[in-house]
User: What shape does this take?
Amino acid sequence: MAHATHSTATAISTEDNYLNHEKGIWSWLTTVDHKRIAVMYLISILTFFLVGGIFALLLRGALFNSGENKFWSYITPDVYNQFMSYHGIIMVFMVIVPGIPAVFGNFLLPVMLGAKDVAFPRLNLASYYVYLLGAAIAGSTLFLGKIDTGWTFYTPYSIKTSTSVIMAVLGAFTMGMASILTGLNFIVTTHKLRAPGQTMNKIPLFVWAIYATSIIQILATPVLGITLMLLGAERALGVGIFDPNLGGDPVLFQHFFWFYSHPAVYIMVLPAMGIVSELISTFSRKTIFGYTAIAYSSLAIAAVSFLVWGHHMFVSGQSEFAGILFSVITMLVGVPTAIKLFNWISTMYKGSVRLDAPMLYAIGFLFLFTIGGLTGVWLAATGMDVHFHDTYFVVAHFHYVMVGGTLMAFTGGIFFWFPKFFGKMTNDTLGRISWVFIFTGFNVTFFPQFILGAMGMPRRYFEYHPAYEPLNQISTVGSWLIGFGFLVALAAIIHGLVAGQKAGANPWGSKTLEWQAPSPPPHDNFPITPTVTAGPYEYR
Amino acid sequence: MDLVIQYGLYGIACACIFVPFFGFGLGPPVVIGAALGSFIGNTYSLIAQQGILKNFIKDKKETGNAGPILPLLEGAQKAIDGFENPGSSMKVEAHHEEGHNHESGEHHIIPIPVYVGVLLILLLGTVITVAVAQVDFGAMNTVIAMLVATVKASFVLAFFMHLKYDNLMNRVIFGSGFFFLMLLIAFSAADIFTRASVIKAF
Amino acid sequence: MNTWLSTFSANAFMPIQGTEIAGKVDGFYAFLLISSLISSIILIGGMTAFIIQYKRKTATDKTAYITHNTMAEFTWSFIPFVIMMVIFYWGKVIFNELRAMPVAGEEIHVVGVQWAWNFKYKNGIKQYTKDGVTKENKIGNVEKQVMVVPHNKPVKLVMTSNDVIHSFYVPGFRNKQDVIPGRYTAFWFKADKLGEFQVFCTEYCGLQHSQMPATIRVVPEAEYAAWLDSNKPSAASNDGGMSEAAQKGVELYENKCRSCHSLDGSRVVGPTWKGIYGAKREFESGASVNADDNYLRESILNPAAKIVKGYPAAMPPYAGQLSDEEIESLIEYMKTVK
Amino acid sequence: MSTVKTEDGHFHHAHHFKNLNHQYDSAKQGVWLFMVTEILMFGGLFVAYLIYKSLYAPIFHVGSSYLDVKMGSINTVVLITSSFTMALGIYFNQKNKPKQAVIALVLTILCALTFMVIKYFEYSHKIHLGLVPGKYFNNPEFQQKVADFINAMPIENLTPAISDINNMKKIAPLYFGFYFVMTGLHGFHVVIGALLILWVTIKTARGQFGSEYYTPVEGVGLFWHIVDLIWIYLFPLLYLVG
Assistant: This one.
């Protein structure tokens, strides 16, 4: 037992836990307990995910055929453009960016560090409400004026369109604020609140991933803030910084935007990598291979991610020199990513692998992320990207990384930590069924899109050339499979909540600190502050 | 190692402030220059503050293996000592060792006269800025104005914001802000000022 | 149906190669495809093998305690690094070729508007879309805007946009370049296959982004010269007794208005201009007015003030974008559209 | 920061910290992290400003001559003084002298108000002249001055971007776009800062701080100095460098 000093924790009765520590809805809404805030985030994010997912299904439905007779006649070009924008905005700003840090980071970071709470508990609650406020402001455009710019808000279209861009960017700005506050909180928590004996090279890899993510959130999000603020000012006053009519440069907007939004890609995927590190080690019951390499590659990815944003702009009218510069630096990101992949796979070597539902999701992550990552290298090569840029190839690539990466890990994380969250087990069979549908459906949906992209089908198209029709139909059918898969996953969660078996403190036999606390943890996480004497993955 | 980070950050912050004003055409050489400068600064700091040179000389003397360059090295060490020791008020960097003691100790309280002195320097800086702006130095106007502003800013940071007496982490955090700002400006400029001009034939 | 989509070249799923560079891109594509296949076989295959071989057998399986292996880690970071540098360099070489503008050759000007491509030749030929893109008039059966270019001769396009960012994409040439308002960007190709090549807009530009049809028709050089000659606009052709102001209005209409307002009475996005001047306008609010100078001016500057019944409030306000003189000339032109 | 003063005059730290010092260090690190985001947010504006200034120098040259250096200088002095009094506010809290601390903090707020009043006069003057961002800009004289300035430039100094005089006249309002956005965002921070100082002043007056615990004063102080720091750069960039 690595953490012998606090094995007493499990012996203590689990009667008093964070769920029943205080009663009533008001005690939830005003709680400063990081675990309750995490649960509130979980509920909000799953709700937004459902909404964003419905938009996705409608989009795929509309793309079922290319002719006049749309699958669903309600969707006209303007409605399609709005749905496309909402799908992007909801999924990016409301689901994937906050997703893993706000839910699992909030719940697990202090527990993994042996702390009683995050460094600034009230700020934590405030950031939740700021996030909800931002979501409400952005969501209000659904009823007032709509939005049809896509999630990228490219000028000058976003200056000219008659939809309510100001409200949408205000919402995104506010959610960015919440993201900054969360990141700030996590950095200070990691620096200052580690348990005695827990040095930086004894923290779990999930904490490393969240830490790297938080650094990106702090450094990148303010630039998004000023960019969106300037866009709002542009529409309200015509300041002219991004408006070519008034002397501005729309390509500068793209620079500013991607200075945030490229690192944001790593805000989305780094925490997922953290989850996968935990899952693979636990379910192979083996020490993680290359702890230091994985930890530092997270930091390396975070640092390099700030230098590569121009690869979104190879054909945007930026100079040839800048394009080549960004291309070569982008290649460097591939190295730490490759290190991580190889290390995870080596962790399974001579292990004892068990394919429970969470592990299946981790395997799914590895499979899909490998494809997503490799096609990323294609897109980073300038000569190839000129052909693929803004085609369905790009759509397929980032869905492989975002959905196949982040959402796979997110769902796997839910199944993995569900016993810790709620003290009950989910039904493993339901979990595996959901994985089969999500994994198969995902490949059926997005693999054809690689081919569509190679054939030259541009993205954000409402109507397309009839030659693209067969593959689009396969893709749409796949989206139904994914939708069904997520419904099954939801059923598994609800079933677990209502009728799940009671879980012990450590049902998976994992070694990290959070499993030494009772399930669900009491209000203060640990009855006695633990002292850490060994690394987080000591499977001997 | 702390020193390296420390001086590196200072070098980077300087580069970030100066690059735009020396003109973007000069950008790459200035960036390289700043990198070199900070490298030299690092090396110097290592030699000066960790006594590498001192130890080296001592070592050589002890083994009696003194080559012909020894007097030269000793001269250099003397020069360094001479530069390091006088209590120059500008040497914000020289005090970082103190920062570590603060994690658990008492908070440093800066006496009022220091604050008054800083206030006077800042006011003087403002007068200089305005006065200099009345004279036309051409392109140097911007450089001078930013130089003065940077000096003023570092006084605010060092004394009003207590960064001089703060721990290393907070300094790294603040420096990283400037560093990433420099990345934004450098790479945006790398695009905007290298674009090929498209000329219409008719 | 064009041949460019239905025939696939040797490389899986890439459109037919219309230029020499397209062949090079496809060679690069093949390399990427094969190297990625090998990488995924190593990664995914290794993973699958480990899952099967090291399946958990008992609840108390002992596992090996391996923390790291510096040599292995160096290997799998250095080899990918080398491969990626090769990929970078190969991509850079092709990119430089795609962007190296020819010195001699034809020059054609391209103007992107919402939602059409306009082409202009040196001798004055203007290839503007005949009608706005209507619902019946879409990709597949539309009479597309055609850019006629010579075979085996470099063609340079100087491109700009009148409103928002568009992107000029020719899959057959494997080339793409954004078209930016207030700035010129360039694009070049040397078509070595005769036939028609599809042009797409790939930068999201609003309502009818997917319906900016255009075709590049590659013809033998002699035929091209003949085409240039026969289509050369005569000096008197666009004059038709119009006042100077109205002629200016034509130019503005072509660039700013045509995509939404037809001249022949057909419905596009906004109301037609046929016989608009003096006609009775009915509004969503129930009011109505005869279209006079003041009404037309207001509708250009602030379209949301009065929305014609049955039409969407889709027009952007042009206040601050058109000078008084330009508005005058547009109204002058409207008077002539009968 | 859920620190409370108990009846015996001592402060209790929040339950998840080891001691007050631990809490102080953590809080301060949090504030510094937030300062980084402030720097980067304003930094975005500075980057845009510098890029356009180097592209369209004449507009910025003529534009800065329209600003009142006297008012700008007074505002600089006012802000620097306020930074000084803010530092004193922290000092007196460290020394357990709440009365003097309150005086210093109130002086800081007064400086902030003075700053905003002067800003108000500057703004109303500009708005009166029609020197406002693009959409509402209405001052042909300014545009003409830009054109005259370019005409007077030696030919070898002209770049393609600025030699198109009509275009330069059209985009001349850009300067005032920058002026209003940069000073507006800064002014917004001054207002927020003043409110925060008011908050710590009230807490100081109620005796809730002392040498053991004054973290909020320190944090607000850091914020206020950042506001000052940004103005130290804004002032020469907008008013003096043309």
